[in-house]
Description:
alpha/beta, 6-stranded mixed β-sheet, 4-stranded antiparallel β-sheet, 19 helices, 12 strands, elongated
Amino acid sequence: MIKTLASQIKEFKTVSLLTPFCMVFEVIMEMIIPLLMASIIDEGVNKGNVQYIYRTGLLMIAAAAFGLLAGVLGGVFGAKASTGFAKNLRKGMFDNIQTFSFANIDKYSVAGLVTRLTTDVTNLQNSYQMILRMCFRAPMTLLIAMIMAFSINRKLASIYLVAVCLLAVILSFLISRATAYFSQVFKKYDELNASVQENVTGIRVVKAFVREDFENQKFSKAAENLYQMFVKAEKIVVMNMPVMQFTVYACILLISWLGAKMIVADELTTGQMMSLLTYCMNILMSLMMLSMIFVMLTMSAASAKRVAEVLNEKSDLVNPKDPDYDVPDGSITFEDVSFSYSKTAERPVLDHISLSIRSGETIGIIGGTGSSKSSLVNLISRLYDTTGGRVLVGGKNVRRYDLETLRNQVAVVLQKNVLFSGTILENLRWGNEHATEEECIRACRLACADEFIQQFPDKYNTYIEQGGSNVSGGQKQRLCIARALLKKPKILILDDSTSAVDTATDARIRQAFAQEIPDTTKLIIAQRISSVEHADRIIVMDNGQVNAFGTHEELLANNEIYRDVYESQMSGSGDFDSNGGEMA
């Protein structure tokens, strides 16, 4: 974990090294000042040597100035190092997330990833700055002050040593108790962020069903859980301060009492007594700093594990050693394919699928909810890998292709359509960043999107809000289809992506595909038989298996499921999910 995090320091190594150097130099200057002060009292004030007072006073001013400069530089370097470290952590995690397969993404919640990129990284940033500054300053202050104190008077300095040992034991106990609570805090952060994200994303549904009170209660519960966990941790941590204060004042009283007796007995000078009291405060303040460091490190330990987990996550899908960069055509073959989302699943999602699809064919895929239609097509572009059997595209195993090459030739319009904030043109160019405006317009005409775009005042420069909230579901689907077409793929997969458009527009889109992209293999997942009945062949999925595969006429004649659903839809009374649950 430490090695993983340290690798993200990168270009900020120099300032990371300069920060502790400055802090150590500052401590040395600070430790010199009490000695000079004692010298002024003993050699200057007590003996009436004004010249000595001036000379030593100038040395004190110089030491203070150099210490101040070192402290300022340490703060600047520390800020650069910690913020740069946080920047690299966020970028490293975000870059790695982009390489994740769907299986990797399924391991983490969106809210959990957001927490890791924000709260967890902020904790590590603060901890890193504290490590660079306080983790060097506090131990050095403690060590040098202890050496100085023992060099003045061992008997009085022993009080510090006893206090340090006592505090070390107490702090260890408190930190061990608090660690367990802090490790749970960030899971509560995930729950809180999940509540916020879900509410904001579905705010229209919340208002439509007047569920504001329910959402408020859910958020309040998540916030209360986080509050309670922090209170439990802080109740333990807060004991640190009174223990520190008690120790500080006890040491001051003991040193003052014993020191006064030693001054009277001529065993200690007044200047030395002043130095010892100063070193007392330095030692105990450094202990207080160390306790704060331990608390911060305790909090950030959980964050460090969570961040390192994302940084170390390796994609399940990787390029082969010598990848193939040529996809000959859009033919698709499933050879005894089985697939499960989890290795521990009792039964596979797809069970021994064997299919052969010719390049340029239009294939309809229908089936009830949960029949694994989407799972089937996700294997073609290698969004997941099979757990058994092979998937071939263009006659080659998809695992032999370069991932980017394969996915550029397999355009997918997913079931959940997503548009990003930006203009319509910017969204369309996700399919092809170099596409001209004319190419974008042509793709939109094929997807029957040009007609509504032309009605906008800014036409193709119309700004799309985040998530496409300012366009309808059908308009969003058509824009996503146009975006996929701009890739000029050999295989086009439409995963229930015309469900929000009317049947007339659906028919026009299918007709445009047949005329304009005849060589592209088209896979159309749909619930409406009218969307697929004109396909070359139709796959009927049932419970993770291919129930039937043939033309519309063949399925009407030979497949009972297809025939029953066709008749119910033609009479306007049903679809695959209302047929007695057969396809569920």
